[in-house]
Every structure is written in C-alpha cells, then in structure tokens.
Design a protein that fits this description.
Blueprint lengths: L15 E6 L4 E3 L2 H8 L6 E5 L2 H9 L28 E9 L4 E11 L2 E12 L1 H14 L8 E5 L2 H8 L2 H7 L13 H11 L4 E5 L7 H14 L13
C-alpha cells in the first residue's frame, strides 16, 4: 500500500515478451503489444523474460525446456519467486490510496501455464485496505470457473490474516460484526473475496512490501499509476 508521503515509483527491470506462435511472432517490450499477437490465436505460445537475450534463446526452441514430474515450468523473474506445483496459479497483488482515503489503485500479476499477465484499475476515492482487497478479487475473478489451486501473495497483513486466520469468516458469521461488537469494515469486498475462495483452493501468503521483490514491486507500480489517473470511477462500496 502507499500514501501521499510514501508513494514510490520503482523502475522495474525491462520486460520482454517472446511470441513463438501468434498472429505475428517476435519479441515485444510491452505486454499489450504481445497480447495483441496471441489473443484469439489458437495454440499461441509466448513467454515473458527479464532480458532480451533470454527471450531470444527461448525463441530458438520454445519447447526445449523439460519439466520435472509434478511441476510446471514458470519463467522466474527473480530467485525469490517460489516454485509452483503443477496446475497451480501464482498471483501477486498490491493496492493503495493516496492520502488514504483518496484516489486509489490496485495491481496484480498472474502467472500460470499460459504465461504472465497483468491487470489493474483505480477509483477516485477509496482506501488502502479496499484496494488491497480489490486486487485479490479482480485477480481471482479473472481466472474464470476452473478449479486450479491458487497461491496468492500480498503485502497486506489485513488481507492475509483476514483469510488465513479466519477473521473474515467470523465477521460474516456474526453479521459483519467484529468480536467486540463493532462493525467490520469493507464487508462488501470481504463477502466477495470469501465467495471466491470458497469456489477454488486459495492459499494466502504475506510478502514484505517494497523489499525488492520484482512481482510485488510491479504490482505497486500498477497500483500507483492507476491511482494517479484522471477521471477515475467511483468506488460505490466505499463509505467515508
């Protein structure tokens, strides 16, 4: 998350997207360009890389990498990217609001057998916690109705503990009241997130924010960029 006094724009390592099978093959320096070549193309094959050299090597023989039984090969952008079991989806999320409350944004990076993709959005008046929750919700919604297990990494202890420690389920059971009887905040988003986690296995993990992890940093960049956009829509669920 971020505030007016702690907003940081991190210069991400330049990404390269190699398209081996698509409308037009080649190496692209932005996901929108690469996505245009693979969207709607049957049997598309593509992958994201940190360096052009790695992308060019992969383009020579896209099918050469071997996968150990029970694992799937995911291009690692960092040595701290965890190993992902076969048929799992990896999600990193972040969100925040300038001045909190204020203009806010969220970002997510999703890694699965199709490669790596990003999603993001923003609202003109919201909070850090709402954007952290929204990032998780939007990422899970983008996966559709399949039942693949998900490993979700967030730097929000509010989100991770809310699910992992059963806080949100307790609030829902008590009619969105905390154990002290006070109203639980953001019940609209918690209700949606609980429903999504009940449709597929999702495990939540905390990752330290602004600690140099490339996927967490990328999510932060997406969130900050969206919070700074003009003409943002209203967060209809936010109650000042």
């Amino acid at each position: 998350m971020f505030s007016l006094f702690s907003v940081k724009i991190f210069m991400a390592k330049k990404k390269f997207y190699a398209v081996a099978n698509g409308w037009k093959t080649g190496i692209y320096t932005s996901w929108p360009e690469a996505e245009a070549q693979v969207k709607g193309f049957g049997g598309a094959k593509y992958k994201g890389f940190v360096s052009r050299q790695d992308a060019e090597k992969w383009m020579v023989d896209p099918g050469r990498q071997q996968v150990k039984p029970g694992r799937k090969k995911i291009q690692k952008t960092s040595s701290v990217l965890p190993d992902v079991p076969a048929d799992n989806v990896l999600i990193y999320t972040d969100g925040g609001a300038i001045n909190n409350p204020g203009p806010g944004g969220y970002g997510a990076v999703i890694v699965d057998e199709e490669g790596e993709r990003e999603l993001s959005g923003g609202y003109r008046l919201t909070t850090n916690n709402r954007m952290e929750l929204m990032a998780c919700i939007k990422a899970l919604q983008s996966l559709g109705n399949d039942k693949q297990p998900v490993l979700l990494y967030s730097d929000s202890q509010y989100v991770v503990n809310g699910i992992s420690k059963g806080w949100a389920r307790g609030w829902r059971k008590r009619g969105w009241k905390k154990s002290d009887g006070q109203p639980a905040k953001n019940e609209d988003l918690w209700a949606e997130l609980l429903l999504l986690t009940e449709k597929r296995p999702v495990s939540f993990h905390w990752v330290k924010g602004h600690a140099g992890h490339p996927l967490n940093e990328r999510c932060d960049q997406l969130a900050v960029a969206n919070a700074r956009k003009r003409n943002l829509p209203q967060d209809t669920g936010y109650r000042p």
